[in-house]
Write a structure and sequence with these properties.
The chain has ten helices and nine strands. With 270 residues, it is an alpha/beta fold. The strands form two sheets. The chain has a six-stranded parallel beta sheet with strand order 1-4-3-2-5-6, sandwiched between helices.
Length: 270
Amino acid sequence: MKILLNNNDLNEALNNVSRLGFVPTMGSFHKGHISLIKRSKKVCNKTIVSIFVNPKQFNNRKDFREYPRNIKKDLSILKKLKVNFVYLPGKKHIYNSKRASKIKLNKNDQILCAKFRKGHFEGVIDVMDRLTNLIKPSKIFMGEKDMQQLYLVKDYIEKRYKCKIIACKTVRDEGGFALSSRNLLLNNNQIKKARNLTNHIFDFKKTLKNQKKIFRLLQQKKNDLDKLFDVKVEYLELRNTKNLKISSKIQKSKIFIAYYINKVRLIDNF
């Protein structure tokens, strides 16, 4: 496993590498990250994993400072997985040039998390553009838990590079709770609460079918969740998985949610 600390290391190591798989991460690995890496190793000749906590996608400095970091443990996991390359850039290696034009979301894309986290996805797209340009992978592997992120990055990157974004299924714990590095910020009681809320929504979706009053039922459920689980729900919406437009049919749609347990923001889709 080669550890690459700067862009010179990167260029030298990746010279003449074909069918390169890329797994972009912010570290603090869990089974979700591991599943992405294993998928890349299965379908690509070589795999590179980046670890970079991107300051530009945090709209709250405290959130950036408190984001879980454990580089020693992450490198141990990557070594066991026999990853070919690990890219550990500093901020200066990623943001060593100014953009010719500022990234802006279309009005239609300013929904779900984009509505509540101003500048977040612009920061995500910016760093993914820079990383893709540096690494030049054949395939990039991303999880479906952050489905809006997956949708926006896929739309942007595949139009500009000869690179395909591979969507990978959400990995959940034994209680059904979607795995996330942010889960490390929760205590055992909070994790139990999140599991109960997750299963509650899975059960709720089964009752929806194609009811005409679906929008009212979602709004009512949003209010119920606040009271039942003592959480703050930002949104609870049914959207088409292909274009993320508001949907009134369960088929080819998912329920999207963002909520806070204390000060920890969690997202999921069902």
